[in-house]
Amino acid sequence: MRKIVAGKPDVAALDPLSVRTGIERAHLETALAVHLHGSFGRAARALNMLPSTVNKRVRNLEFQLGCAVFERQKRRLVATHAGSVFLQHSASLLRDFRALVDAVRRIADGKAGQVFIGYHGGIAHQKLRRLLLEADPDFPEIHKMPVELPYDRLFEALASGRIDLAITHSVPDLFQGRSAPMWSERFVLCLPESHRLAACATVQWEDLLHETFLISGFDASEVMRDLLEERFAPFGVSPRVAVHEIGPAAIIDMVGVGKGVSLCLDSMSRENDAGAVFRELNSAPGTTDLTINACWHTDHANPALDILLKRLDVRPK
């Protein structure tokens, strides 16, 4: 099943006339029945048909092959050497074909398949880790495929069909698909361990008015800018922001060597980061939580995504 599901859905260019043999599936099933039961009569009873029909199908098969498939030995039909090779591979083909039909039916029903989930940054948050990595015990044949992307590429990948679902910090106003809030994450302050505020359990926003905030250009930079503008507005000043085209982990490293301070999600805060510590932020005024959203297009062609969305119990808006 995994091999079938993982295969690319593009239909290979094939001229059916180039592989036509004149042998039909009914020929294979009949020959396998004769091989199992040892006679035309017993095979006919098993297939609920006349012995003459079984005999005719086997003769047609041998004509198309150009060789005998069976020979009589001690009142029983047994396969010839060439017939044994043919029947062995025919049985394998029919089993594989049956598995293919069953798999395609499950894929069409959404009970099997792949769902490509785009996300940005680390997966330390428990809910994101569960979404990306843990299989659903009720639908073990739905395989979730994580795709890490720069934050500004998530909706491009969603529009192109590279991913089926995007996990994002914000939803663009022009987005034409559906979205649903999944969970909230809290912002914390990352600052050098030598900073004057490192001894505080909770940092006040007014203590940060003259700090330089380092922001990753690969992250939700506009979300962080807006949050800083909102928090600094009551004090009549604008935040000092420096955007760097590096990932959030590298931003934390810059903080550790004294280049500034930074906001980061609680799930990104790590113990023993060289030179960096993490502190609570006073939530007043407003909140320092960030809503994480699931986004998708309603005209998608992946039934497994519908099953996943139902299992997540999302309430789209």
Order of H and E elements = HHHHEEHEHEHEEEEHEHEEEH
> For the report, how would you describe the main beta sheet?
8 strands, mixed
**Helix count, per DSSP?**
10
pLDDT averaged residue by residue = 88
Number of discrete domains: 3
User: Regarding CATH, which class of the largest domain?
Assistant: Mainly Alpha
Question: How much strand content do the residues show?
Answer: 15-25%
Under the CATH scheme, the architecture of the largest domain is: Orthogonal Bundle
- Tell how many strands the DSSP assignment holds: 12
Give the radius of gyration. 32 Å
End-to-end Cα distance, whole Å, is 34 Å
- Residues in helices, as a percent range: 25-40%
Please state the structural category.
Answer: alpha/beta
CATH superfamily of the largest domain: Winged helix-like DNA-binding domain superfamily/Winged helix DNA-binding domain
Give the overall shape, derived from the CA principal axes. Answer: rod-shaped
**Which residue ranges are poorly predicted, with pLDDT under 50 across at least 5 consecutive positions?**
none
